[in-house]
Amino acid sequence: EVFHFEGATGGTDISTGTKKHQEINRKAFAAKWKEALATKPANGDVAALEQLPQGYKRILVIDHHLPMPDRDSGSLRMFQILTILPHLGHRVSFIPDNLANIPPYGDDLRKRGIEVVLRPHIKDVTNYIESHGRKYDVIILSRCGTAKKHIAAVRLHAPQSHVIFDTVDLHFLRAAREAELTQKVESRTQARETQQQEYAVINEADETWVVSVAERELLLQDLPGKQIEVVSNIVDIETPTTAFADRADFLFIGSFLHPPNVDAVLYFAKEIYPLIAQHLPTAKFYIIGDKAPPEVVALASNNVIVTGAVPDVRPFFESVKLSVAPLRFGAGVKGKINQSMAFGVPVVATSIAVEGMSLTHEEDVLVAEAPADFARNLVALYQSEEMWNRLSENGLTKARSLYSPQVAREQLSRLFSDEHTSKSLHRRALAVAG
Q1: How many CA atoms lie within 13 Å of 254's alpha carbon, on the beta-carbon side?
Q2: What is the pTM of this model?
Q3: What is the pLDDT of residue 430?
Q4: What does residue 349 show for φ and ψ, rounded to 5 degrees?
Q5: What are the strands of the beta sheet with 138-142, ordered from one edge?
Q6: From residue 231, how far is each of 72, 268, 270, 403 by CA, in Å?
C-alpha cells in the first residue's frame, strides 16, 4: 500500500520552482515515447491492468492458514508451490481460512509477488468468493476441511473457474491406519466419515491433487474417471559438506500437531532407542519439531535432546549421521524423509514411512519394521562409511529426480497450461449436459 503526499516536495504551483518542469517534461516524455504510449491503457484504466497475457492464469489458493515452511512439511510444499506459480507467469492470491496474519509468513509470500488477503481487508472468506470469485481462472482448495467448507460457494460464485482439490495427503487413509493400530471404534468411525467427506469433495472438484502415485492409484480404484494428478513434496537440494568421519548423532524431525509423529517418537523411545543405546552409548538423539506434547518433552535426558521448533535445521543436518522415520501409521509422502535425503543424510524408516516414494532398501534408504531390525539397521548405517556414502549419494539423486523445484515446476507448468485446464472444463460441461 503506497501513500502519495501530493506536492510535499515540489509544491503544487506548476508555474514556479521545480514544479514548473512537470508540465515541460510531460510534453517531452509524451513526444519521445508516443508510439509506446499508444499501446498502453489510458490513465485511470484499472481494468486494463488486471488483464493477463494469453496463457497465464489468475489463481486463488485457500488453505487453512498461512504456510509456515519451517514448521511442517505440508506448509513447505504449499510455500514451494506458491513460489513457483508466479515464476510461471501466473498471478496468485492466497487466503488463509482463519484470516490471521502470522508474521513473518504473510510478508514471505508478498515478497514473492503473491497477494495475501486476510483480516482486516476482508471479514469472511465466503463474502470474498461472492464478490471476487468471477475473476479467477483457477481456484485451489487445500485440505479436506477447507475444501468441504468452501467448494459450494466456489461453484456458485466462480462457475468459470477450474477447481482443484489439493488433498495434501489422504486424511482418511491416515485415519484408517491409525484405527487399525489402535483398534478404537471411534477411530474407525472417524476414518469412514473422513473418507466420505474427501470423496464428496473429489466428486465436486474438476481435479484432485495427491502427493504420490500410490495415492493416485488408490483413488482411481474407487473413483475411476476422475482427474487425479500427482503434485508431490518439493525440497531444495543441499549438497552435504560434512564428511562421514566428522558426523555424529541422529535425529527425528516433524511437527507434533501431526498425531503420527507423536506416536512415532514415543514408539521409538520405548521400543527401539534402548536397543540402540547398548551399541551407541554416546550418540545423541535429537527430537526436532513444533508443539511437542508433555509426553515427548518428558523423554529429554543427557542423550535425548528435545529441541522444539528450529527455524533453521541446516546445522543439524550438517552434523548428524542419519535421521529416523519410525512411523506406524500415516499417508502421503513424508516430508521428513524428503528433507533428510535433500541434505544428503540417510534415513532409517518403516515401510509406511517410505510408502509411495519409489525408494529401494539398502540403495536409497534402510527399511525396517520390528524394533530389533530397526535398531540393527541404524547401528550398521551409523558405523559403516561405505553404506553411508552410498545411501547419501543415491538419496540426493532420487531427491533431485522426484522432489526438486525443477521437477515441480515442469509438472505445475503442465497442470496450468491452457490445454490441460480446457480439457477439464470440457469434461465438466459434458457431465452437466449428460
Answers
A1: 27
A2: 0.85
A3: 67
A4: -145, 165
A5: 115-116, 91-96, 58-63, 138-142, 162-166, 207-210, 228-230
A6: 17, 30, 35, 9
